[in-house]
Amino acid sequence: MPEDIPPSSCFVAAQSVADFDTCTISDALDKLGFRGAVAGIVRLTANRQRIAGRVVTVKLGPAMEGLPKRHLGASAIMAAQPGEIVVVEHRGRTDASGWGGLLSRGALRKGIAGVIVDGACRDLDESSELGFPVFGRAVVPLTARGRVAEHDWGCPVTIGSIVVNPGDWVVADGSGVVFVEQQHLDKVLAEAERIQGRETAMITALEQGAPIDRVMGANYEDMLK
Predict the structure, then answer these.
(1) Number of domains the chain contains
(2) Are residues 129 and 22 in the same domain?
């Protein structure tokens, strides 16, 4: 966690980010001209809760000589603060796991809110039984041993086409994964609140019997203008 941001401020911000689903955050990013939504990463575990928090990063790559002899993800887990989310660059690989059950157990004990892997994971039954949220691109039983190594952690990573830095924010739910750069967080949350307010009014109108063609007319198409 950056030293210039006190933990109490991060807790308040995490609560605010968790107020919005990924679709609302994505719409806010669109309105402001920012990028952050990632296609193809979905919830893999059975638990259905939304996760939102600051990012702790891990960079994976091919196994090769000269890399530190450490279990992938372990250093990031040890450094993470409660409520943070581990984000793993796995380069979209589905031929070997980038996360497993022992890591989920260690992360859960540290109070980590979940993990997002740009690639495959394994031990999903175990993670589901633990209640630890895992998001990724695929499930595979193949171990990372001899196939994957940790190249770095606490560094910029690329998830899909989005560059994610330690200390950025992420929301993940049944619709996918959206990242928000730390410096844009206040603007994005303010816009998300406006969008959510409009959508809440539309829901109320529908529940009161207003015709859907009137509710989802020109005003809906203009929401992001």
Answers:
(1) 2
(2) yes
> Model confidence over 138-172: pLDDT tens digits?
999 999 998 999 999 999 999 999 999 999 999 99
77-125 pLDDT tens trace: 999 999 999 999 999 999 999 999 999 999 999 999 999 999 999 999 9
Closest CA to 88 of 101, 72, 65, 104: 72
- Four-residue CA torsion sign, 51, 110, 107, 76: positive
- Report yes or no on 2 lying in a domain: no
Distances (CA, A) of 168 to 76, 85, 172, 209: 15, 10, 14, 41
CB 75 within 8 A of CB 201: no
pTM recorded for the entire structure: 0.89
* Maximum Cα–Cα distance across the chain: 66
Residue 195 located in a structural domain = yes
Take residue 108 and report the two structure tokens written for it. Answer: 């859960």
Residues 6+ apart with CB under 8 A from 42: 135, 136, 137, 176
Q: Are residues 194 and 176 in the same domain?
A: no
> Do 13 and 94 belong to one domain?
yes
The answer to whether residues 199 and 179 belong to one domain is no
Question: In percent, how much of the chain has pLDDT > 90?
Answer: 74
Q: What range defines the domain where residue 164 resides?
A: 7-183
**Closest-CA residue to 45 (of 135, 116, 143, 171):** 135
